[in-house]
Fold these 2 entries.
Entry 1:
Amino acid sequence: MSYKRVYLRKGKESSLLRFHPWVFSGAIAKQDDDIKEGELVEVYDASKQYLAIGHYQIGSIAVRILSFEKENIDKSFWKKRLEAAYNARKALGLDYTERHNTFRLVHGEGDFLPGLIVDFYGSTAVLQAHSVGMHLVRQELAECIIAISEGKIKNVFYKSETTLPYKADTGAEDGYLIGAEDGAEAYENGLRFLIDWEKGQKTGFFIDQRENRALLEHYAKGRKVLNMFCYTGGFSCYAMRGGASAVYSVDSSAKAIALTKQNLINNFKDDNRHQEFALDAFKYLDDIKKDDYDLIILDPPAFAKHRAALHNALQGYKRLNLKAFEKIKSGGILFTFSCSQVVTKEQFRLAVFSAAAMSGRKVRILHQLTQPADHPVNIYHPEGEYLKGLVLYVE
């Protein structure tokens, strides 16, 4: 198959020679006429030597690389890559069991499929495109997901209305590519969760906190727990199972609180240790008494989605963590996170350390947390390490 071509400026091929999967627009010297967004293009260096093939897009990242080999990108290519991703999950022990049937199948660049996210929830896969190129092949991808899933996936839901480049004007609509709704429920480590993949955030559930939730369960026994930005109550359910004396879930979204309440009922019936509140997180922290909680979880949405917002985001993390340090009981444990990709581990840690210093509390690091193995980081693409977390002991 013949593909249109992009030629790089002299010396700009070095990142591709190191297998980084992005070509920035400033690195391009010239390109064939009439390349459409989402089209497959071959990338060449200034001496016209082949480097890679990928999806073309308009913006700072001009090409997302799919392969550094000279090959056709067709349905067999997609199936091969998806099969490799599934085999990796099975090798990690994340395949289906009676206690567990939810995991991430594809994590963009981490699975050598930049622009694509696929999550498995029971018999439904949720496919999310972050590039026009992946949007254009969504039906092929859905068919390949069914084919490689060994009969476990019956439905593929497409959820990309809010993740595609807003200037692309694709007319994308969320909906089922294959199958239909057959029960929006999944199991994680034996806990049962309702998943709102149609209207919820991301693909419906934050799978990336699975291992961190399990760690929280270990620390919850006998503690009064405050779960800020609770979304659907994942941390709250683990805290309850871990033997917390009380669990309070807070989120500004009434819909999220309704899901949290239902998930707690589904797992713990009439257990009266849990209460939920649809309130602003900062206001709630302002209003609570000092020493009221001895375990606090801060898992806010991304404070910065682009570099222009970085400074304000870091100030937000500092302010939020300062409030927690000021209010947490002596001997308390703070789980604090950032899911902002543009915030580095060092920047997040500095914001938290600054908050600790401002509070005057003695603070120890117990754990440094990141995303789980089904959210892998391509070794050539360190930007993929987006989830940062600290577990802190506060005197």
Entry 2:
Amino acid sequence: MEKAVILKRGKEESLQRFHPWIFSGAIQRIEGKPEEGDVVTVYTNDHKFIARGHVQVGSIAVRVLTFNDEPIDQTFWNRRIATAYDLRERTGISSREDNNTYRLVHGEGDNLPGLIVDIYGDTAVMQAHSVGMHVCRMEIAKAMQEVLGDKLKNIYYKSDTTLPYKADINKDNGYLLGGNAGNISTEYGLKFHIDWLRGQKTGFFVDQRENRSLLEKYAKGRKLLNMFCYTGGFSIYALRGGAEIVHSVDSSSKAIDLTNANVEINFPGDARHTAYAEDAFDFLDRMGNNYNLIILDPPAFAKHRDSLRNALIGYRRLNAKAIEKIQPGGILFTFSCSQVVSKENFRTAVFTAAAMAKRNVRILHQLTQPADHPVSIYHPEGEYLKGLVLYVE
């Protein structure tokens, strides 16, 4: 018997607009007893084909892979990975001589919901955010080998923290291809140690590449504070941009060790840089007005909609403290990577923070994620990264 999802009457409208999620409340019945992660065919209430995708437990019951009546086989995976790679080739990010770090697959933005793949040199780090993508990991790995050829020597699968915690599957991380790879990659001519074995996400925040490059243009002669520095990406760009001093702060001593290692590999013995393993709010409370360029790039304050209110309070508090203490003529780069925090939510929080600090503030840039993190026009929820560059008088 075919594994199928039958929708309630009228619930196909979002799919007719090519939105890739089917919520559990839209389903009339499920046929064929599919297990979590299986491919199911989706029909309207009058049994017309409308989509095919991975079924899962939770409010998002199906993640749509295709709106065409086609099999989800090796040819399908090869074609989707080839399309994703072609976009990176056409935008130039995968073929630059000074860069071998980029995102190859960005979930819904590449019509592969639940899948993330980042490229670090000749290593791909794959993350499944759905059981369906976990089940298909070997077919996806084979497709990447087919498309990237000799450019790909290692595939590391890292999904222990991203798969549903109740799913009854083996979540062990490990190499699907190769192994014992070197962990240094290049981003716009700068070198970074990438800890894909134990680091956050896939080991590096690839999504801030263009924003780091912009910061470099503002760094010359400035005294910079990089809050929530993680592995020091913004700090390294600031040093190359000619910053007078660069201070990196993160609550994780391991992150500080990686930051110092990344400074050393690019600017050995550079006395302009100092790193602190300290809570961000504690550091801001005691720092004085020593800086005229500050970066606020915190982890997601809200991962679920029920935590939105507290997240916005956190953004207001954090930005108010930075705006209050930055020197006159200072520049603030401030970000939110919480998907449930909209651009309007974030701007309002920052505007409120400026009013609380009683400073005159102007917007220089409005920032988002780069082209290798594309947003499907049918899935605006994929635009998760928001940033503002502010001039504080």
